[in-house]
Amino acid sequence: MSNVKLAIIYYSSTGTNYKLAKWAEAAAQEAGAEVKVLKAEETAPQQAIAANPAWKEHYEETKDVPNVTLHDLEWADAYIFSTPTRYGSAPAQIRAFMDTTGGLWFNGKLVNKVVSAMSSAQNPHGGQEATILSLYTSMMHWGAIIAAPGYSDPVTFSSGGNPYGTSVTVDQDGNMLEDVEEAVKHQARRTIEIAQMVNNGTK
Amino acid sequence: MSNVKLAIIYYSSTGTNYKLAKWAEAAAQEAGAEVKVLKAEETAPQQAIAANPAWKEHYEETKDVPNVTLHDLEWADAYIFSTPTRYGSAPAQIRAFMDTTGGLWFNGKLVNKVVSAMSSAQNPHGGQEATILSLYTSMMHWGAIIAAPGYSDPVTFSSGGNPYGTSVTVDQDGNMLEDVEEAVKHQARRTIEIAQMVNNGTK
Amino acid sequence: MSNVKLAIIYYSSTGTNYKLAKWAEAAAQEAGAEVKVLKAEETAPQQAIAANPAWKEHYEETKDVPNVTLHDLEWADAYIFSTPTRYGSAPAQIRAFMDTTGGLWFNGKLVNKVVSAMSSAQNPHGGQEATILSLYTSMMHWGAIIAAPGYSDPVTFSSGGNPYGTSVTVDQDGNMLEDVEEAVKHQARRTIEIAQMVNNGTK
Amino acid sequence: MSNVKLAIIYYSSTGTNYKLAKWAEAAAQEAGAEVKVLKAEETAPQQAIAANPAWKEHYEETKDVPNVTLHDLEWADAYIFSTPTRYGSAPAQIRAFMDTTGGLWFNGKLVNKVVSAMSSAQNPHGGQEATILSLYTSMMHWGAIIAAPGYSDPVTFSSGGNPYGTSVTVDQDGNMLEDVEEAVKHQARRTIEIAQMVNNGTK
Question: Where is the Flavodoxin-like domain (chains A, B, C, D) (predicted)?
Fold first, then answer.
């Protein structure tokens, strides 16, 4: 496992998906991938952020995480998206970035990118499945190769059992209710493993 | 058919969904509903708009159409969403507005709103179905009542046959490839008809 | 709440969805609805059933529950489907029944039926959301009115928080891991409440 | 392109998806894959088949096409599913087969199978997208790798533009309304190309 380039693209208002992204980064680096952790640009008005102390704090803490660019999408062989749910879909911050990819899409630059996704919600069945599935639907338009974890490792069972991608429930205080660290790491390894196969086959 | 308040909420860069919205408005007014046609606020950078003459022109033409507000969602008994597809999902403009509804949602203000949706895409199977279904998934979080047209009228068959909501294919020059005006009007009438029933039952 | 006719249509191999169906029945009867609990006909080979003691036992126990028929679909004003997941979709037993509804569909006999759905799975995120959403997609073809519970009552939060419909996780021994009885009952009441409104409006 | 084993698994009542399957077979053989065309076992009652002359005729014509078995799923590196829609989902014949895969699933035998899907419907937007997406959702449970065509070749644009998989509209007389032969062939080649990469990487 050597030459895979992985972009971990997340949106996080209060830190959960940033944590998921960092776990994925650790596993991917250990597996020898080149990794970038990138955030979807914040598009919410400053006053909305300022009104929510946890959001404000996380916003300040992650100011130095680079915003994802189209160049990153072209650079990477594989993407892992990590995002909270907004009514069973990704937040507008993620969608706004995806909406800018028309040029790459039109020129076939996103074909055969290997992708997987993770999500969080405040309720155990609060849209975690739907959010991940909606991202995959979009990425199929790109010609991406969807590498959902399924039950490819027993860790899926012990971490909530979401076959579409690792997901976690977060309580009002921001605590994760399932222990998903190992599931995230498995998903990261699997994503780059499949990207490695595709790289070997196409380069 | 009298006291239904209908919000037709659309996003349109070059005019297709604005046209669908206006057809829906005409039918709804004729059926006696109080109707507002409202656009999702444009969130794209001005330079992106300026770079696309058709987008720029439509943007200028519809400057006076009010942006949808949370107050409109509370006011209306029924919503019809009309939106182009962005990779099988609604554009960020629509999602950004939906992401602001947390307060209404939390206070149960969106429960029993009667909803339906319409979509457009450049390819006949380019995400029309997926886009509408993704909106319904989100609206289920609100506790909305989904009134997809199904095949409740023969017009669905002659206008492309999308049971989830009226959808249309638009070519590179902005021409609609199916004749959907009557299907839009049927959908509008059906949406307010069901909203009328709900109004009578709850007021 | 008086004249609503409700068909609770379930499939159950080892009893979970039968239990959900019976809770729904109790609440619906208390609310004054006429209720039928009906099972999707078993289509699995007898040897498969015989090889699984829990399945065999439940199969024998529920021999007297009538199989759902097309006549029941026509009779009822509202349906509640309750079904385990099979890879994020309803089992073939449910789909086989739905596949027989072409005649009713073609003649518009399923238009404006008010529907909601429930599901179970062995993993907390094991397809509960996807299974319910796939049923709603199908019922939109019928012209049904989808009355997902959303968060229309606080009980949704305390029972797993699935806005699409009540869902439950079942362990290897058949125990339900969430307490969903009250959520099922709320969903049943809500389904018939909306069916009542539709009845009043159309009859 | 040599050692890929491809199972083309279809259901067809009157011949459309059989034709799609045969086009896929031709392209896959030309690309050097070992190919089996396999049908989902017919589960409809004989009287239903007998009552529909076109169904009866196709049923007799394809009597010698082997029914797909669990062994075939294990044998193949890649699967292409081809199926009509039944209300935005695959028919019970397909689902019944999928429901028998629990043993393979539990033992991880379906992990990393490369899959894609095709569909048909009588209306241009009559569930083609939803049907394919619902199959992918299920296959994610298997740990399969989803290789939807996206717009990886211009032929997608000229054949209806369904990025999730090739789909076709069939009129009352069984005529296909779009020319999808080349799109089917592209999808077959792409599916085995990606399976080749995975084979090389894992064997």
Answer: 6-192
Top residue of A98, A111, A115, A146 to mutate, by most chain D CBs within 10 Å, is: A146
Using CB atoms, which chains have 3+ pairs under 8 A with A?
A: B, C, D
Gap from D125 CA to chain B (nearest CA, Å): 5
Burial B9-20 (b: 16+ CB within 10 A, else e): bbbbbbbbbbbb
Least CB–CB distance from B201: residue in C111, C141, C197: C197
Q: ipTM above 0.95?
A: yes
CB distance A69 to A98 below 8 Å = no
Number of domains making up chain C: 1
Query: Are the C-beta atoms of A37 and A64 separated by less than 8 Å?
Result: no
Distance between CA B3 and CA B1 in Å, rounded? 7
Question: What tens digit of pLDDT does each residue of C108-155 get?
Answer: 999 999 999 999 999 989 999 999 999 999 999 999 999 999 999 999
Give the Cα separation of B76 and C120 in Å (integer).
Answer: 35
Q: List the alpha helices (DSSP H) in chain C.
A: 16-30, 46-50, 53-61, 70-75, 92-99, 102-106, 128-142, 155-158, 181-202
Q: Which of A41, A87, A139 to mutate to test the interface with B (most CBs of B within 10 A)?
A: A87
Beta bridge partners of A6: A35, A78
C125/A125 Cβ within 8 A: yes
pLDDT in tens, D33-83: 999 999 999 999 999 999 999 999 999 999 999 999 999 999 999 999 999
Compute the nearest-CA separation of C157 from chain B (Å).
Answer: 11
Find out whether B20 and B166 touch, Cβ atoms under 8 Å: yes
Residue ranges making up the domain that contains C150:
5-202
Closest CA to D2 of D196, D198, D203, D178: D196
CATH of residue A66: 3.40.50.360
| Chain B residue set in contact with C, beta carbons under 8 Å | 105, 108, 110-112, 133, 136-137, 140-152, 163-164, 193-194, 196-198, 200-202
